[in-house]
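hey so i finally got around to running the thing on that chain from the lab meeting. sorry it took forever, my laptop kept dying and i had to restart like 3 times. anyway pasting the input first so we r on the same page abt which one it is
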Amino acid sequence: MAVAATNLQRPPGGVPGPVLRPYMLVRGRTRPTGEWLDVISMVCAQRSPAAQPVDLEPEHLEVIRRCRGPMSVADLASALDLPLAVIRILVADLRDRGLVRIRRPRPDGLADVRLLRAVADGLRRL
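ok and heres what got predicted. didnt touch it at all, straight out
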């Protein structure tokens, strides 16, 4: 059974635990493998393998559980109460094993000047 990351990091009473836990969780790594993961990249779990890999941390399993439906990297960081850099490494680990699929944001719609002007005009009217 997966244990929520918040239970592992914070003692009862809500006082933050030591910084050592996230560092240990990613084995001292500071960057994810492979392509960079944007905060708005959507992560979706692949079909569950017949047997769960034994060398995954509870947080890896929690990411898989939460990503049964698409969830952004930023939302995962918030939901698991872990630093964004740690989530990026965990998701990259799962991607490397083929346990999650990642959909990157499409930049073509973000560069449309007309769309940006329409959004800015709408915000000004508020």
